[in-house]
Write a structure and sequence with these properties.
- There is one protein chain.
- This protein is of the alpha+beta class.
- The chain has a domain of about 90 residues: Jelly Rolls, CATH 2.60.120.
- The protein has five helices and eight strands, in the order E-E-E-E-E-E-E-E-H-H-H-H-H.
- The protein has a four-stranded antiparallel β-sheet with strand order 1-8-3-6. Strands 2-7-4-5 form a four-stranded antiparallel β-sheet.
- Helix 2 packs antiparallel against helix 3 and helix 4 crosses helix 5.
- The protein is globular, with a radius of gyration of 17 Å.
- The N and C termini lie far apart (about 35 Å).
Length: about 160
């Protein structure tokens, strides 16, 4: 399936009928909290199988995934995924490797959040996203608020940093 910028792959609360293999592109994953706060909490990139929390057993979808750029995704019926997980002795190791890769990504993102200045954090985010965004500038697919959430600063700080670029 091909999704274009702004199209939704899955929605928070969906029952999770599919596992998705991100072939190309980028997605932001947001979560709407009961108090009305919308938080960007993840970026999905090529090679990932999602939702991560449902790779071993089913669970309702935790957030909404929106395409940031043109993206290609393979959809796998969840029932087929879980049946194969039970029948193929190599599949659990494949899932463990996928989850290990995501943990390593999250460690890298945490390292980026603890690096010195906000400008350095913005630079690291831009560098990482450049690998997956086909040269599209970060500000064309993320808002200043979202960039701020990813680097741990307020929108006003992002605005100031971008003006200084």
């Amino acid at each position: 399936m091909i999704l274009h910028k702004g199209e939704i792959l899955f929605r928070q609360g969906d029952e999770g009928a599919f596992i998705y293999h991100i072939k190309s592109g980028l997605f932001k994953v947001t979560r709407l909290h009961e108090n009305g706060n919308m938080v960007l909490f993840n970026i999905l990139y090529p090679g990932e199988m999602v939702p991560h929390h449902s790779l071993i057993s089913p669970k309702d979808i935790h957030g909404t995934a929106v395409a940031l750029i043109r993206s290609e995704v393979e959809t796998i019926p969840a029932q087929d995924w879980y049946r194969e997980l039970n029948e193929d002795p190599k599949k659990p190791l494949e899932v463990a490797k996928l989850l290990q890769e995501k943990v390593r990504f999250m460690q890298e993102r945490l390292d980026h959040l603890t690096v010195g200045t906000p400008a350095e954090r913005l630079g690291l985010l831009e560098k990482w996203l450049k690998n997956h965004a086909n040269g599209i500038p970060l500000t064309e697919y993320l808002t200043q608020e979202e960039i701020g959430q990813l680097i741990g600063v307020r929108r006003e700080t992002v605005n100031r940093l971008l003006r200084g670029h």
